[in-house]
Design brief:
180 residues; mainly beta; 8-stranded antiparallel β-barrel; 66% strand
Amino acid sequence: MVAAAVFMLPQPSQARRFSLSTNIVDYLNLGTLNLEASYGLSRHWSLNAGVRYNPFTYNLPEKGSQMQNRKQSYEIGVRMWPWHVFSGWWVAAKAKYQEYNAGGIFSPETEEGDGYGVGFSAGYSLMLLPSLNMEFGLGFWTGMKKYTIYDCPACGQVTESGTKAFILPNELLLSLVYVF
């Protein structure tokens, strides 16, 4: 109800400087909550900060089986907009930290740990209404992770642990963006 009221408020005709967005695809990833805030630094650059959070564990019908993709991640970065901030094509770079615990999805193994690194992405922002955009994009991140792999989510038997480099897909964006 409050969100609907915000969308109905008249917007000043000055340049848009702030945006808040949420990625719909992240909610399909076992309910990952997410929010990103952006500030237009100039006509072609914006500063972005985002957070993702998933505290959910799902119990499966098999006795003692569960699946989860629990995480908390924080990222800060910049976007370059060739046309105009919050409009058209963009490319981005960011620094990211993530604490995670994932398992039971494709096998009973569970991996938990911390990852940090840099990410790169690109996409397009389509204006639907004067204050509402839809963003499409793809990205990956690379860095180091300190991890532990367990035989199953509940048994606690360690099968592997250590530190290693990684390159992973970071995001598939289909975001609703409110620009104000």
